[in-house]
Design a protein that fits this description.
alpha/beta; Rossmann fold; 11 helices; 11 strands; globular; binds 1,4-dihydronicotinamide adenine dinucleotide; NAD binding; Hydroxyacid dehydrogenase
Length: 325
C-alpha cells in the first residue's frame, strides 16, 4: 500500500520506517493537509494526518474521490476532523488514543516547575555569570491545591505524579471515573486551586472553557497550564487576566491559532499574530510548541499503533481505534 503522511517531520520518519513491517510505501510530505495539498494523496490508499491538518468535509471528499480507504491520525485528539462528513463518505478515521499519557503529564510538571522555580531564567543568568537570586523566588508544589480538569488518561497520570509531590488534588470531570480522586464541581475547583491544569478534549462545550467569567472565579495569582488544545482558553481574556495579575503564571503547550505557527521554524519571519506576540512579552508566561507528546517512548508507540491501524485495513478487520461521530 501507499501511505501519504502529511505535515511529516524528519524526526518521526525513522519511527514509522522502523515499524513498517509490512513494507508499505511511505510517502512523507512536509506540507500540511488542506484543500490545496489533498491531491498529493493520489495513488495512496491511506492518509496519515496530524493535529493541525485540515480534515474538513471538503478535504475528506477530495480524499474519498482519490480512493483513499482510511485516514489514520497519528495523535489522540480529533477536533480537526469533520466526523459526520467522514461517516457519510464511508471513510473510516482511526487515531492513536493513548501512546504515552505520562509524556504529556510529565511535560505539565516541567511547565509548572519551570514557572514556579524559574529555572529558564536561572539558566540564562548563570550562563552570563549572574548568580543574583533576586526575582527567582519560587513556591513549593507540596501542600498546594492543584485543580485537574478532565481525568482521562493524561489527567489521571498527572494526578498520580502530583500525589508524589504532596499536592492536594481537586478534580473535575462530567464523567468521574476514579474512586480515589476528590471530584468537586467546576466552580469550586476554579475558586480553590492554586494551579489549574486542563486535560479535557476540545468540543463545542469546552471551547473557551477558560474565559473572563472563569478568571473572575480564580484565586489571585493562580497558575494555569494548558497542554490539551489551545481553544479551551480564550486568549483575549487570558491577556486581560495577566494584565490584572489575576493570572500569576501561564504555561501553554498549545495555542488557539497554533496551526499558523507551530511545528515550523518561524525565527526569520515576522509573526503576524499580535495576541501570541503579546503573550510572549509577559515575564510569567512560558510557551512550548506542542511538544507534550514528544518523547521517544511516545513516538515509538504512535508509529506502532498507526501501523496496527493500517494493518486492520489490510486484513479487513474491524478497527480498534476508529473515531465515530
Ligand atoms: P481522554 O479521552 O482519556 O480524557 C479526556 C477526559 O476529559 C475524559 O475523562 C472526559 O470525560 C473529560 N471531559 C470531557 N468533557 C469535559 C469537560 N467539559 N470538562 C472536564 N472534563 C471533560 O483524553 P487524554 O488522552 O487524557 O487527552 C486529553 C487531551 O490532551 C486530548 O483531548 C488532547 O487534546 C490533548 N493532548 C495533547 C497532547 C500534547 O502533545 N500537548 C498529546 C496528547 C493529547
Amino acid at each position: 500500500m501507499n501511505i501519504a503522511f502529511f505535515s511529516a517531520q524528519k524526526y518521526e520518519q525513522p519511527f514509522f520506517n522502523a515499524h513498517n513491517l509490512a513494507n508499505h510505501t511511505l510517502r512523507f510530505f512536509s506540507e500540511p493537509l488542506n484543500t490545496l495539498t489533498a491531491k498529493l494523496a493520489e495513488d495512496c490508499q491511506v492518509v496519515c494526518a496530524f493535529v493541525n491538518d485540515d480534515l474538513s468535509a471538503e478535504v475528506l471528499a477530495t480524499l474519498s474521490a482519490l480512493n483513499v480507504k482510511l485516514v489514520t491520525l497519528r495523535c489522540a485528539g480529533f477536533n480537526n476532523v469533520d466526523l459526520a462528513a467522514a461517516n457519510s463518505l464511508g471513510l473510516p478515521i482511526t487515531r492513536v488514543p493513548a501512546y504515552s499519557p505520562e509524556a504529556v503529564a510529565e511535560h505539565c510538571i516541567a511547565l509548572m516547575l519551570t514557572l514556579s522555580r524559574k529555572t529558564h531564567k536561572a539558566y540564562n543568568r548563570v550562563k552570563e555569570g549572574n548568580f543574583d537570586l533576586n526575582g527567582l523566588l519560587g513556591f513549593n508544589l507540596h501542600n498546594k491545591t492543584v485543580g485537574v480538569i478532565g481525568t482521562g488518561k493524561i489527567g489521571q497520570a498527572l494526578c498520580r505524579i502530583l500525589s508524589g509531590f504532596g499536592a492536594n488534588v481537586l478534580a473535575y470531570d462530567p464523567a468521574p471515573s476514579i474512586e480515589t480522586l476528590n471530584y468537586v464541581p467546576l466552580d469550586l475547583l476554579l475558586t480553590q486551586s492554586d494551579i489549574i491544569s486542563l486535560h479535557c478534549p476540545l468540543t463545542p462545550e469546552t471551547h473557551h472553557l477558560i474565559d473572563d467569567a472563569a478568571y473572575e472565579k480564580m484565586k489571585k495569582g493562580v497558575m494555569l497550564i494548558n497542554t490539551s488544545r489551545g481553544a479551551l482558553v480564550d486568549t483575549r481574556a487570558t491577556i486581560a487576566a495577566l494584565k490584572s495579575k489575576t493570572l500569576g503564571y501561564l504555561g501553554l503547550d498549545v495555542y488557539e491559532q497554533e496551526s499558523e505557527l507551530f511545528f515550523k521554524d518561524m525565527s526569520e519571519e515576522i509573526i503576524q499574530d499580535d495576541e501570541f506576540q503579546r503573550l510572549l512579552t509577559f515575564p510569567n508566561v512560558l510557551i512550548t510548541g506542542h511538544q507534550g507528546f514528544f518523547t521517544q517512548e511516545a513516538l515509538q508507540e504512535i508509529a506502532h499503533i498507526t501501523h496496527q491501524n493500517i494493518e486492520q485495513l489490510v486484513q479487513n478487520q474491524p478497527f480498534t481505534n476508529q473515531v465515530l461521530p
